[in-house]
Write a structure and sequence with these properties.
This protein is mostly helical. The protein is 66% helix and 5% strand.
Length: 313
Amino acid sequence: MMKNRDMVAVSVRKPDGEIAVEIDEYHGVGYGTRFLSIPFIRGVFVFLDSLVLGMKSLNYSSSFYEETDEKPTKLDEEIDKVSSGHEDTFLMIITMLISFAMALVLFMVLPYVLSEIISRYARNESLIAIIEGVIRILIFILYILLISRIRDIKRLFMYHGAEHKCINCIERGRPLTVGNVRRSSRLHKRCGSSFILFVMLISIVLFFFIRVDSHIWRVVIRILLIPVISGISYEIIRLAGKTDFFLIRLISAPGLWLQKLTTKEPDDDMIEVAIKSVESVFDWKQFLKDSFGYDIDESWMEDADDTTDKILK
């Protein structure tokens, strides 16, 4: 999946080997409001848009592999009645709500409960706040390691790597060919994986200073602060994508380390799918002409992989 401004493209390798591309216009949750231009608030809307687009992309991809000869079950018929014929949208909303609830329990409530158990043996509240954050990060890393062993998730991480490699290829002034993409890095500072890690690190700082006596209110505050934490995290990752300052590189490093788990090296077929998505929403040839000053025609593209390094030098 690739997004450029309001245009979104999702490319899928169909069972017959062809690449299907769906191009859509997506304005986002807060489209037309001033909130999208306000720092620390716009990040909340970007986070919500990422969830929606991610689910829509996965649903579109899975639609090519659904069994067509199965008869609708009674549950399918009931869902169709409840959703007034919009079954896909209804199921997507339900899935997002369940996933969000599970994420809250796993990454917010569980670390707090475990840290409270540890607090029986360590009375220092500052230390407990730090321990809670460390537990949250360890749970997340363990979660990533476990799901990465699932075959479909591993393929998803490979496609994730292909997306990053395409963007890195273009931003470094290389023509978007399979060979150039293959040798580009699969790590990128603006990745959503880095965003999630920033959320967890910033939560340590906020929860360190914001304290209440009630156990219930401690959990409630952790949930209510999620928009605040995501807003701060977005601004940091946005800054990281615009500057190469030493301190920013230092802050971005943990997120890049995490991407070694959430991205895998793709094969050439996956790279072709990612290239198709990029080309559907972004004129990379014009970008290279404007940013790096050289034209790319079809005859040049035939041996672009062999001549790129010579041109860049």
